[in-house]
Amino acid sequence: MVGLEHYLILSAVLFSIGLYGALAKRNAIVILMSIELMLNGVNIALVAFSRYIVPLLLTGQVFVIFVMVVAAAEVAVGLAIIIAIYRHRETIDVTKINLMKW
Amino acid sequence: MGISIAFWILALIGVIAALAVVLLRDVFRAALSLVLCFLTVAGIYITLSADFLAAVQILIYVGAISVLIILAIMLTREVQHGSPSNRLQIPAFIVAILFLGGVAFAMLNTPWPVSSAPPLEPTTPALAGLLFGKGGFILPVEIAPLLLLAAILGAIALVREK
User: Fold this and answer.
1) Overall pTM > 0.90
2) I need a surface site. Which of B23, B81, B100, B109 has the fewest CB within 10 A?
3) Testing the interface with A: which of B7, B36, B103 to mutate, by most A Cβ within 10 A?
């Protein structure tokens, strides 16, 4: 029988994969995709808590809706920044974008 | 029993798709496996009897966010460079494994107060009551469109031709 722990481990695995991708990749779009993976892992944990600990309150599901709103806004602004950088510098390799490094 | 089988199949496909996102060399294929991962997460929501969230996941993530990501990949001609790793590959792997171990240890050793009540379904009317009803989350619901408006204006201002 599948319980709360299974869902929590699944969410931790997805978050760790996203963490590795966000830290180790050089393509800015792949980093953004890894951040989406991390957000999805957190969402699974929130829905699992909502389902198994307070099944009648649904507070976790409301939080997931707001996380999705913020994720959509973040992707729109993030991809706009990536495209603006690509227009100026012809690259989205984050190791070469050191404009604000001193 | 059926939910257990569905969970294991969806979890396996989801984890493999997530690994493909960070390990594939081709950025476009990585984006497509990200879409597959979003779809399996929607299935996971259905096994958790969160029907409204599964529909929203498919609409927003599979529908909108994946289209935005694929459009950005096509607008930036970086596909031929692949998705290389930087110098931090091994430290990042170690950090991710340590994080997974720590979180899994904490999750498995915490006595969660699991309730035995059956899940609420369908969840859509209850969610509507929580979001718009008295004593609910009406203030965050009002702030969310402000954030979306700011994001839209910011995106337009950033990518506009000078």
Assistant:
1) yes
2) B109
3) B103
Residue B62 structure tokens: 């599979």
Structural domains in chain A, CATH included, are 4-89 (1.10.287.3510)
- The verdict on a CB contact (< 8 Å) between A26 and B131 is no
> Is residue B4 domain-shared with residue B79, that is, in the same domain?
yes
Shortest distance between the Cα of A29 and any Cα of chain B, in A, equals: 7
For B111-131, what is the mean pLDDT?
86
Distance CA(A40)–CA(A99), nearest Å, equals 31
ipTM tops 0.90: yes
List the one residue out of B27, B136, B59 whose CA is nearest residue A68.
Answer: B59
The reply to whether B105 falls in a domain is no
- Which residues in chain B have their CB less than 8 angstroms from residue A4's CB? 112, 114
Same domain, B75 and B134: no
Half-sphere exposure (Cβ direction) of B1: Cα atoms closer than 13 Å: 0
Residues 69-98 of A with CB under 8 A from B: 69-77, 79-84, 86, 91-95
Q: Which residues of A touch B119 (CB under 8 A)?
A: 51, 55
> For B45-101, what is each residue's pLDDT tens digit?
999 999 999 999 999 999 999 999 999 999 887 667 777 787 888 999 999 999 999
- Is B94 domain-assigned? no
